[in-house]
Amino acid sequence: MTMNCRLAIFASGNGSNFEALAKACIDGRINATVALCVCDHPGAYVTERAKKLNIPVLELRQKSFPSKKEYEKAILDELRKENVDFICLAGYMRIVGDVLLNAYVDRIVNIHPSLLPAFPGIDAIGQALKYGVKVFGVTVHYVDHTLDGGKIISQVAIPYEGNSREELEPMVHAHEHPLYIETVAKLVNNL
Ligand code: GRF
After folding, report:
1. Mean pLDDT rounded to a whole number for the chain
2. I need a surface site. Which of 19, 82, 117, 168 has the fewest CB within 10 A?
């Protein structure tokens, strides 16, 4: 078991999963420290959440770099400086490339608001509603070079027969935080 595993959390927007994981690390439910918040949308709300929790933030735009490779190399430099050994994606709206995948083999995970492999990609909840599914859900999975396609680690099913996004969305998000915390807690204990 790695003592005091150092996590980086990557996010692009709101950051409620970021905050849930960070608080779980702070109060000891996850045996880890959040060493860095990586945000590809400077000024996104997640950066405020991180600052309130005194977590260092790396804000950078991919388009400021000549290529995805250079962008990820810049991130990797910071991850190494911070001795990061595990990465959680939490609403990070990009496909992870080889630079990071090769540096963190089986050490990058993501949370997605559907029962994968159904409904990968953007607006999974909307896709599932449109399809008329009766069981929604959340998945935590390893990250590979595909869109929401890596090996599944944990899932929770959310039966719902209605068709109201307003009703469903908070139900799905309420299931995300405990599942992500419980899953990451187990993973970091087995590094
Ligand atoms: C969540 O629904 C997560 O499953 C997906 O992106 C959303 C991020 O929400 N990958 P938040 O920024 O953590 O509030």
Report:
1. 97
2. 117
What was the pLDDT predicted at 4?
A: 83
Q: What phi, psi does 34 have (nearest 5°)?
A: -80, 105
Length of the chain: 191
- Cα(59) to ligand 1 centroid in Å equals 18
Q: What percent of the chain has pLDDT over 90?
A: 98
Give the full edge-to-edge strand order of the sheet including 57-59.
57-59, 32-39, 5-11, 86-89, 108-112, 135-142, 152-159
* Nearest-angstrom CA–CA distance, 82 and 55: 12
pTM check: above 0.70: yes
Rounded distance from Cα 69 to ligand 1 centre (Å)? 25
Q: How far apart are CA 94 and CA 151, in angstroms?
A: 18
Give me 150's structure tokens: 């890596």
